[in-house]
Design a protein that fits this description.
Elements (H helix, E strand, L loop, with lengths): L1 H15 L11 H14 L2 H7 L2 H6 L6 H26 L6 E13 L6 E11 L3 E12 L2 E3 L8 E3 L1
Antiparallel strand pairs: 1-2, 2-3, 3-4, 3-5
Helix pairs in contact: 2-3
Length: 158
């Protein structure tokens, strides 16, 4: 009985742990929707949970929690910059962002055995009033899509 109880506790722990959330997506639409939902909610933890941390840490020497946080610092900084940029453009702290559509610009091979980078123009609907275009870089490998590059600052008003 104790062994079953321990297995249940371990299973529930794995479900609840933030770092075990889905890091790869089979649809670009889902990845973009969740990314901009995190922006909409101003939730940097949600954004970090979408990152492919396995790939991010693969070539880093992370020996402590501080080392791993330093790897993520560029992501959280750029995330905050995007939020500030959208607040400035919308003229309000309380804005809503919805992914209206997206268009793949080009693919670029990174390395023979690694991921490809896809550059995507995402059209965002801000406050249900006006649209913005934002460039997003997504990595792809074997029909899955991941975030391995910080979200870019810089938008174009359409």
């Amino acid at each position: 009985m104790q062994l079953q109880k321990n297995k249940l506790i371990i299973f529930l722990f794995f479900i609840a742990v933030h770092s075990f959330s889905q890091q790869t997506f089979t649809s670009i639409d889902t990845l973009l929707s969740k990314t901009f939902l995190a922006v909409n909610l101003k939730d940097s933890d949600m954004y970090v949970s979408l990152l492919n941390t396995t790939q991010l840490y693969a070539d880093k020497q992370c020996k402590s929690k501080t080392d791993s946080l330093n790897v993520l610092k560029s992501f959280t900084t750029s995330f905050k910059d995007v939020i500030n940029e959208l607040e400035e453009v919308s003229g309000t702290f309380d804005y809503t962002v919805v992914v209206d559509s997206f268009e793949i610009i080009r693919k670029r091979k990174v390395c023979a055995n690694q991921h490809e980078k896809i550059y995507i123009n995402v059209q965002l609907l801000i406050n249900q009033k006006f649209t913005l275009k934002k460039l997003v870089v997504v990595n792809t490998f074997q029909n899955t899509y991941t975030i391995e590059t910080p979200i870019l600052v810089g938008i174009r008003i359409e």
